[in-house]
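User: These chains co-purify. Model them together.
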Amino acid sequence: MTPGQWLSAGRADSRSAEVGQAKVGQAAMPANTTEDDPERARRFREAALPHLDDVYTLARYLLRDAADAEDAVQECYLRALKHFDTYRGPAMKPWLLAILRNVCRAEFARRASAPARTIDDSPEAAEQTPLWHEEQQTPEAEILRERDASAIRRLVDALAEPFKETFVLREINNLSYREIADAVGAPVGTVMSRLARARAMLRSAWLAEQEQPR
Amino acid sequence: MTCDEAKILLHALIDGELDAGHAREVEAHIAGCASCTAELAAYRTMREAIVSADLRYTAPASLRQRLDAALPKPSPMPVSNVTPLASRRSVLRGFALGSAVSALAATGLFAVVLRNGDQQLIESEIVSAHLRSLQPGHLIDVVSTDQHTVKPWFNGKLDVSPPVIDLTAQGFTLIGGRLDYVDARAIGAVVYKRRAHVINLFVAQTSSTARKPAKIETVQGFNIRSWSDRGLNYWAVSDIGVDELNEFGEKFEAATQVNKEG
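Assistant: Joint model of the two components:
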């Protein structure tokens, strides 16, 4: 499955329809695969539900809100079910995460049209983060160790997009560079540089926080 | 390698995303550069802290219930509703053999559908791999028009030794080789050119040693010619026409028959 197909699964139906027509050997597919087909429902549940925690985790990081995340996950699974017949691999988890990401994009757009400031999508802030760090007074390794999960989650939450998304897909959802590239529709090289940038940003924030009294 | 390159690539090194050759290059730079050594150590420490902190969330039970309610109900047992229907029909007809025939037909159909599905999945992945290879810088890992350079390059990278045959004289120029991933496995890709068109020839091991004749499929506008020979599966993918792709496959197969050592 190409990146384009993944994107289409999250967006318009028209692309998927084209893809479906382009495929060969469809004649052998069972003709009665409707939305109510219980066999299809069983296959979908078996394939998709084991990844629920991963999908929910990405939604929590992208949307920063538990209730919104639940809504996004439900929307993601309904869209995935709808496009399940055109799903042809390579792996279920990246496919679901790509759909979820598109659901979240729609949510960002909705929030952006609301007056409240939401997520800084501009990479400018990120570009200013140095990739290099001067030597610290306290051994840096010590500082980077002293954090519990909730503190790290807060730092990750504060990362700007698209760096946060790349970071979460890699470090928390455990996707390979290629899977991330397919899921976000960017070349592997872009994924690599975004990840380097995300880690540099996280490291700066981590060290900066250490300097302030807790 | 410069520090600028290394400071990006060291992340790929940490993530185990570099092939052996690039990993060695990055490691060699880092070994001779105190600043990059410190960077690598800092990011490794940070990564360990992140991994051990477990930053995943667990979906709440309420969400599982919501999804369960929103998704259509599954069938309790696969295929269980097929047999009673078939046997009842045969009983109604009073035709004892009918049951066996329908059951056979049912399983036959089932097998065909499954295998076809599998095969489509592979073909779709093959096309994806072909598309990826066409992106800048992705086509070739080893650049050579010499089959005696390309073939040894695969040694130790794959569980098979793909035949690399120079078909330049026949109008298909060998331009190099590449490692790719299909069906979550490393697979060899030998790259040819016909005029401006790229042909990727993917080669993977198969458990069956039977020779399977060539088959042409079209997926997403690309032609795929697949065949099997002496324990290897081949997929030649390109945007060239079916005729030319067939010509390529036939010449390749003819050359492998002659060239036993190749």
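Chain A has twelve helices and no strands.
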